[in-house]
Design brief:
It is built from 17 helices and 14 strands. Helix 6 links the parallel strand 4 and strand 5. Helix 3 runs parallel beside helix 5 and helix 3 crosses helix 8. The two termini are 41 Å apart. The mean pLDDT is 92.
């Protein structure tokens, strides 16, 4: 697998999208789509041993970069096509981009979303004025339904990634980043169907052929990785990065990525969760799983980016608040700051008080407490004490466990 830039160029005659197409898209969407900030994160850079700039596409009106391609595609419709309306399939962000700009342009929009799409994305899409249909267990199945619906009603299908106009629209991010930060030498870009990284690679290579461009996929959905490297890794399960959970990458985008992208890497669910939590904690910005994939790649393999000037795109911020709470709580548990304990006690007065006093003296905070006398395998004269405690870090937790053991309590993590 390649690890360094191949001095690739975006002027190959067979490319379906050209740098000129991306320039035209930038002119077309100017004023209707935010030129988002591209700011250095000194803290993240210090953590990862490189310099890191963040492109805040999660601050677009619909909280996603997808507005760019959606608007560029809608603007290309003929008056007759506008009158008949459009249909799109999407796990959420493309849906909102199409819905929002279709409403602005007076175009009727129907969005087909797969079962399991986060409710925040469904409700936001409806709020932008589109009709929402839920169909299919995957984005691909939703796409089949959307195509049939478009043919049956004479509507235009707005594909989320495998369309030259969509690719050109997404590619407008690259010139903005390189103009804001000319010293960037590495771009790390999430990949679902491949529209974003395809457009970025074409635009960036046109001015910086030596730029290193890496794609990132969720380990549970390595579709583009499989296509590029001839692998057959399985695709399954629920990923936090549902925005890039695509089983069938685009045909156009696969060819572009094969020609212009240096490498595609995979990140685990734990790594994605950690990146989401880190961005909230350090940057005070909310990013969905797909949007945090680039940071996950850097944090999980910092030696690969050591000394580099790295650009990351926070592609979207549409994540359920319940899921945010779960991610943050799980991260506290990983850091040893929130722990569930089970302690075997003799069932007599004063034992709970003794444990409470010990934990207080150790500086631990009790969050939850429950006694279990019936549903345990302990002797009848014993009880199971279940606690959730808060500690400063892993070292503090180890100290608390040592104190419990020294006091004669049998404690274990649950």
């Amino acid at each position: 697998m390649p690890t360094d830039s191949k001095d690739k160029r975006a002027d190959a005659p067979n490319l379906p999208v050209t740098p000129a197409d991306i320039d035209a898209a930038a002119a077309a969407i100017r004023g209707a789509v935010l030129v988002s900030a591209c700011e250095e994160s000194r803290t993240l850079g210090e953590m990862c041993g490189c310099r890191i700039w963040l492109k805040f596409e999660n601050l677009q009106f619909t909280s996603s970069f997808k507005e760019r391609g959606a608007l560029n595609r809608l603007l290309a419709l003929s008056p007759e096509q506008r009158g008949r309306g459009v249909v799109a399939m999407s796990a959420g962000n493309h849906a909102q981009g199409v819905a929002y700009h279709a409403k602005r342009l007076g175009i009727s929009a129907t969005i087909v979303m797969p079962i399991g799409t986060p409710m925040v994305k469904i409700e936001n899409t409806r709020r932008h004025g589109a009709a929402v249909m839920i169909s299919g267990a995957t984005l691909e199945e939703a796409g089949e339904f959307a195509l049939a619906h478009a043919k049956a009603h004479g509507m235009t299908l707005i594909h989320p990634y495998d369309d030259p106009l969509i690719i050109a629209g997404q590619g407008t991010i690259a010139p903005e980043m390189l103009e804001a930060v000319p010293l960037l030498d590495t771009l790390v870009v999430p990949i679902g169907g491949g529209g974003l990284i395809s457009g970025i690679a074409i635009a960036a290579r046109a001015v910086r052929p030596d730029l290193r461009i890496l794609g990132v996929q969720a380990q549970l959905y390595p579709s583009m990785y499989n296509a590029i490297y001839g692998q057959a890794l399985p695709m399954r399960g629920d990923t936090l990065a549902e925005g890039i959970a695509v089983k069938s990458p685009g045909k156009i985008t696969t060819d572009i990525i094969r020609d212009l992208v240096d490498d595609v890497v995979l990140v685990s669910e734990d790594q994605i969760e950690r990146a989401v939590a880190t961005l909230i904690s350090i940057e005070k910005t909310v990013v969905e799983g797909a949007g945090a994939a680039g940071l996950a790649a850097v944090m999980s393999n910092p030696e690969r980016f050591a000394g580099r000037n790295v650009g990351l795109i926070l592609t979207g911020g549409n994540i359920d608040t319940r899921l945010i709470a779960s991610v943050l709580t799980r991260e506290l548990a990983r850091e040893g700051r929130l722990t569930q304990l089970a302690i075997d006690l003799v069932d007599r007065p004063g034992q709970l008080a003794a444990v409470s006093i010990l934990l207080a003296e150790a500086g631990a905070n009790i969050i939850e407490v429950s006694h279990q006398r019936t549903f345990s395998d302990l002797p009848a004269k014993a009880t199971l004490l279940e606690l959730v405690i808060e500690t400063r870090d892993r070292a503090h937790l180890d100290d608390v466990m040592a104190r419990l053991s020294a006091a004669g309590f049998i404690a274990r993590w649950m």
